[in-house]
Amino acid sequence: MSHDDFAHEPIPGLPERPPNGEHILWQGRPGTWALAREALALHWVAGWFVLLFGWRFATLVDLQGPVEAARLASPFLILGGAVCALLLAIAWVQARATLYTITTARVAMRIGAALTVTFNLPYAQLASADLQLRRDGHGTIALEMSGPTRLGYLICWPHVRPWHLRHPKPALRCIPDAARVARLLSDAAQARLTRPRLGRTAPGPALAAE
Question: What's the pTM?
Fold first, then answer.
């Protein structure tokens, strides 16, 4: 199910070469801006510091005048800019360390900036896949696991559907052209699960010629 990814990858994003008959259909990673906005709440953080600046300015403007009030309130904007820059740096590192792979047999997620782990999710263990699409084309595809297999929320974060703590859903987070990727994933899973399984059976008695 998972693999500690300290060893050299024979193929980027996969802990080992795919077996015969399995082909890579798509590989991608989160968009930095989209990941910072959705996973790290960049807009909310920026808005909070702007609100603090406005509050400080409003309390001082009558006493100090607009220029002095803006100067005294400006540390909130400076601190907010530093925090937002830090969040963007974290999002960039997370995005660069991540590589999602869709093959004809599974979804693989290489995640983790400090401790890199690869999760292999065969289509047979996926109960459903839900797409959350944004206006700019970025989106998140959340995967619901079937059976007893469960992945930890903290282990997967931020590559997990937000706030589903009790039943974590690993997710291809903030990927570009998400609608096309979702269709590709749906087609691949359906083809894999409806493909007839061929097994070996003992040969039966030969039919006698009449």
Answer: 0.82
SS3 (DSSP) at 26: strand
Taking the domains of the chain in order of start, what are their residue ranges? 2-30+98-194, 35-94
pLDDT per residue as tens, the chain (210 positions): 444 444 567 788 888 888 888 999 999 999 999 999 999 999 999 999 999 999 999 999 888 889 999 999 999 999 999 999 999 999 999 999 999 999 999 999 999 887 888 999 999 888 889 999 999 999 999 999 887 777 888 888 999 998 888 889 999 999 999 999 999 999 999 988 775 443 333 343 433 333
Handedness of CA 62, 66, 67, 70 (dihedral sign): positive
DSSP 106-119: EEEEEE-SSS-EEE
**What class is the 2-30+98-194 domain?**
mainly beta
